[in-house]
Fold these 4 entries.
Entry 1:
Amino acid sequence: EVLLQQSGAELVRPGSSVKISCKASGYTFTDYYMHWVKQRPEQGLVWIGRINPANGNTVYAEKFKSKATLTADKSSNTAYMQLSSLTSEDTATYFCTRRGCMDAWGQGASVTVSS
Amino acid sequence: DIQMTQSPSLLSASVGDRVTLNCKASQNINKNLNWYQQKLGEAPKLLIYYTNNLQTGIPSRFSGSGSGTDYTLTISSLQPEDVATYFCFQYNSGPTFGAGTKLELK
């Protein structure tokens, strides 16, 4: 069974950074891109970017190029997303999801930015 | 960026109804479109990929169609468990989601 297990909820201060993890199991981690998606409360889905875990190559949506940094650790089958210079606009649930067709999703990681 | 416009934004229907959800792209996306279902408090779930391919394990009452800029998700006979928000997603260029259609029971 394919599983994507994300890290827990985070409460962080404005201006700080946060790093979310997504541990993959049930398939060969390096076979598929990992994508990240943002969902603000009661709102729709926004594609952030994707990483190729095999070689670390990344592609970002324009609006996230200075906000998000995607990395992957092949030794632990874990993908990471770091968000920097956090503001209230970054308060959201962040999902990792596998492959271009997004056929498996993590449970979501809630990030709350508040002083 | 390619804009994806979903309609209607809210749809009320009865159990057993045939339901049609629409997604219109701002330019040709060459059938590079998926549909997802998201229930309250859950992650999205892939229903349909590449316009009309049913994901494994998804009931056959779900189907997709379309080409060019216009795409449709159809539920042939609405069931109570289909209450959810449905998103289209294009990956032809600079991937983008539609804003969603919230489907509720009448």
Note: The first strand of chain B starts at residue 4 and ends at 7.
Entry 2:
Amino acid sequence: GQQLNQSPQSMFIQEGEDVSMNCTSSSIFNTWLWYKQDPGEGPVLLIALYKAGELTSNGRLTAQFGITRKDSFLNISASIPSDVGIYFCAGRPHPRVQGAQKLVFGQGTRLTINP
Amino acid sequence: DAGVTQSPTHLIKTRGQQVTLRCSPKSGHDTVSWYQQALGQGPQFIFQYYEEEERQRGNFPDRFSGHQFPNYSSELNVNALLLGDSALYLCASSLMGGEETQYFGPGTRLLVL
């Protein structure tokens, strides 16, 4: 089945720093999503991307749908303590790909911020 | 407006037992999806229910089954539990065709001993 490779697996940064994480796949995706999961909670949708090349912002968060449709990245600017958590990319494969309707998740990036 | 709720929050079972997890979707939503999230991993799609029928299924054995009720709530049943079934089980609700804006519940953490 489809797999998403998300990197880095973990990040340790200082408050105020910018953060960048990405997700890649060997097959093309029609939709890319970025979620954040806090301890004891389910994932919460941050940004949804629907077109190749699309660049979308949500406050200090910016995400892009890669031109090749096989990757996406998420940037967080000027990190603050509440940004701590696990960030997941997720994608919906192209309809020609078997099982395309299922949402596929990356392994997550754990973000830790030192005050 | 209540969000997605799941019960129980935690559960401990032994190998070979059976378990039922429950989910109530967000008000107005008609579609429920179930995911398994192993420790340190992303969620993996189990199946989706709409109009009381299983519409899509991930790569999970038949030991995993589900049900959706007329009020859109849903159950996930797992038979013959294995140690490897220990995970956080997440329910997500949405409107059919709008899975990109699905809302997740807090999950049920299952430990199989």
Note: The first strand of chain B starts at residue 5 and ends at 7.
Entry 3:
Amino acid sequence: QKEVEQNSGPLSVPEGAIASLNCTYSDRGSQSFFWYRQYSGKSPELIMSIYSNGDKEDGRFTAQLNKASQYVSLLIRDSQPSDSATYLCAITDTGGFKTIFGAGTRLFVKA
Amino acid sequence: SAVISQKPSRDICQRGTSLTIQCQVDSQVTMMFWYRQQPGQSLTLIATANQGSEATYESGFVIDKFPISRPNLTFSTLTVSNMSPEDSSIYLCSALDGSNTEAFFGQGTRLTVV
């Protein structure tokens, strides 16, 4: 079982819709959870971090964490064509320093 | 967060040769890491670069193939040794922010081995 699992997509949504990205992880000792955005040919960019159960909102982005279910999600409201990218779910390992990435979900927002 | 400068940004190398990638952070950081991202794949951690001591390698990666240096808290190098076409990939330097929780990245080195 992979440590971080994501649906590879592609996920296609119309402009203005809500994009929902999901992720599960296997390490129950993980304490930190992240969503990175990666445009083609670029390095990953951190867009959300979440450390406790529940929701965390930042602008059009909402991260949701459920440690009991080992589940992390990212909602993007009012999706824009500029949101088209690969979204990487990541966790820190039990030691708390190494960041482990999922395979990523490709998102396409159609104008 | 701090800024990471990585060079070269890309290179085309002959098989059997070695390439050293440099990573410079504009402030002192405790933790630095090297990742590989093969075409169409996610990031795989190669090793943790430890300041003043040998790097800690992940399963499947060995020091003879990927020697790493970290002479101080702002600089690290990764060497890809005795390259083969299978080493063609993007190599990314990463560091943790001041709170040692969030990872940020250099711009990556795109390596093609012919």
Note: The interface with chain B takes residues 32, 34, 42-46, 49, 51, 88, 90, 92, 96-104 of chain A (CB under 8 Å).
Entry 4:
Amino acid sequence: QKEVEQNSGPLSVPEGAIASLNCTYSDRGSQSFFWYRQYSGKSPELIMFIYSNGDKEDGRFTAQLNKASQYVSLLIRDSQPSDSATYLCAVLTDSWGKLQFGSGTQVVVTP
Amino acid sequence: GAVVSQHPSWVICKSGTSVKIECRSLDFQATTMFWYRQFPKQSLMLMATSNEGSKATYEQGVEKDKFLINHASLTLSTLTVTSAHPEDSSFYICSARDQAGGYNQPQHFGDGTRLSIL
């Protein structure tokens, strides 16, 4: 059983600080990784994807991938109250695009 | 780009009614669409993978006769909850992948359908 694990939180972050979210996965052969944000009562929305080891930056978001250690992380810089949401880590599991999701990390940004 | 439209947003109906939910990819073609269910404060649960022109693949424990999935075109998949009962009340979400661009394409989600069975 392929597993994707995240700390459920809540992760409390002061406004303006950096939020750091971690995700580990069990399948060493995994190649593609995604971060989704889900506001309460809403559907997930794609924030970033990363395929190669290292960092990938998009605005205030940075995804980091380390395949040797089997973890992927998401940094949110200059956190805003609007960043308060659950962040889902997902790993691509087959050629049809099926994803294995973690249970999500709840982030609460306090003013 | 990569917009997925899901309709309806809300459904309230009586027990025993069948409910159809539509999922459309508006600006791309989706060979594969996915249907999820999410109960309050719980994780996304994949129900089935829908491939255009073929039968859906259901996850273990999901009743295929209860949740009918049709994927007749590259832009439309439907989920029909047959003879719905209160325990089927949930948040149903579809997603789709753009078939162009290869293996690594992400899933894009619709806005979801909140189903309440009285």
Note: The CA atoms of residues 34 and 49 of chain B lie 5 Å apart.
